[in-house]
Design a protein that fits this description.
There is one protein chain. 26% of the residues lie in helices and 31% in strands. By secondary structure, the protein is of the alpha/beta class. The strands form 2 sheets. It has a 9-stranded mixed β-sheet with strand order 2-1-3-4-11-10-9-6-7. Strands 5-8 form a two-stranded antiparallel ribbon. Strand 9 (158-164) and strand 10 form a beta hairpin. The longest helix has 13 residues, at 188-200.
């Protein structure tokens, strides 16, 4: 079973519905105990880094998530859920994320030609091969909605990049940890393929 983590800041129903469309067994929970009993976990997210980190701690999900990941079970972060894998974000310097990956979260610099946040379809350029992207063509379009992006310290965990003023990391994978900056639940067929692949890991 896949636990979709409810910490008050994700488009949970859309994510659940997307998993159901690919016949995956998933459920929404805010219970640390139920999370730790799940086979896999998904951390979606829309909103501010600081608010999200505080909510995870308030609901006792912060250490439960870290424990889940440390046990080696498959974890999938979506958008803000990807950023929360890191310790700090320029968006909320005083709050600490999950700190399971090294690096930083930085913001786009808006210009006349570059609107922030990035909202809409953009390409993901794949780096190497990965089971999560089985059946996905290189430079496929996915749906993005974000003002910040991750900059991992370990370059070898970067499995996909996207260009929006700068080339930023849009897909990471390290052992049992997987995360994307885009929203697969809003990315039509390609997005559903990724969710199906995660279910089969």
């Amino acid at each position: 079973m896949i636990a979709i983590i409810d910490y008050g800041m994700g488009n949970l129903r859309s994510v659940l519905k997307a998993f159901e469309e690919v016949s995956s067994k998933a459920f929404i929970t805010s219970s640390p105990a139920k999370l730790l009993k799940a086979d896999k976990a998904v951390l979606p997210g829309v909103g501010a880094f600081g608010d999200a980190a505080r909510e995870l701690k308030k609901r006792n999900l912060y250490y439960a998530l870290k424990a889940f990941i440390e046990k080696g079970r498959p974890f999938f972060g979506i958008c803000l859920g990807m950023q929360l894998l890191f310790k700090k974000s320029e968006e909320s310097p005083a709050e600490e994320g999950l700190s399971v990956l090294e690096g930083e979260v930085i913001g786009f610099s808006p210009t006349r030609k570059l609107k922030v946040p990035q909202i809409g379809w953009n390409q993901a350029e794949l780096i190497g091969r990965h089971p999560l992207f089985k059946g996905i063509k290189d430079k496929n379009y996915f749906y993005f909605a974000h003002s910040y992006y991750v900059k991992p310290k370990q370059r070898n965990i970067i499995k996909g990049v996207t260009s929006y003023g700068v080339r930023f990391t849009s897909f990471i994978a390290k052992e049992n940890i997987f995360a994307v900056q885009f929203h697969p639940e809003k990315s039509q067929k390609a997005g559903l393929t990724i969710l199906r692949n995660f279910d089969k890991l």
